[in-house]
Amino acid sequence: MAAAAAAGQVIGLLKVRVVRGSNLAICDPLTHTSDPYVVLCYGSEKVKTSVQKKNPNPLWNEVLQLSVTNPTKPVKLEVFDEDKFTADDSMGVAEFNVTDIYDAAKLDLKHVSDGTRIKTIYPVGVNYLGAESHVSWKNGKVVQDITLKLKKVDSGLIVLQLEWAHVPGVTLYVDMECLLGLLKVRVVRGVNLSICDPLTHSSDPYIVLRLGTQKVKSSIKYHSINPEWNEELTLSITNMMLPVKIVSSSAFPITLLPSATSFFHQDLLSISV
């Protein structure tokens, strides 16, 4: 049986597909364009893409590889504009965590359906996300899609696709949060929901499910107090005693306090077949 990875040892390979950039900064005022390339730094490693000439919306679709030794250390990303005669100008910086894809890679997912979302990460002030990021199980691999919003610059997004590759002979340490199963919750509809907009006598409702640190949500149904979702949300079950909390809220800016309820997924065992 393979031993767990020691400190400082390579525990996995992170394949980073740099897909594209969008609305990047203009560095050449004469041509009103830029010659961008992306640099990734992780510890002492430094890898970069090719240069896309005269293109503020470049399409790279190139795979860069990093050796992961410490999953708590973020990957730093910087976009540069190539200049033949002076130092290359920075076109913005960002970073992303390895922990989300690493935590999923530790789980036994062999019996999970292809395309299942394991985790969703939301854009908040402390991260660089420009959109929701999803960790998924696809084609027998743990993958994650990331859209990064560049900082220290007026505009710019970078789209990445991550893939975790196991290192032969290395077994990842699996703590008490072993995956016991996946709970698929189909949000069918809402009936006679609260009216949060007194002007239109309606609401813009959406549903949020919380389980531990996980949070998944439905789409927003505008101007409806009897919404039809018929959407499937997935939660990873690691502790049968944690309740699933259901919060119904509205996207209306002056929404009333959201209503909430909860249920224990262990109760579903009695009706499973």
TrEMBL record:
It comes from the Eukaryota. GO terms for cellular component: membrane. GO terms for molecular function: GTPase activator activity; lipid binding; metal ion binding. The keyword Chloroplast does not apply. Its main location: membrane. It holds the Pfam family C2. It comes from Zizania palustris. Residues 1-111, 164-273 form the C2 domain. The keyword Nucleus does not apply. It is found in: Membrane. This is C2 domain-containing protein. Keywords: Calcium, GTPase activation, Lipid-binding, Membrane, Metal-binding.
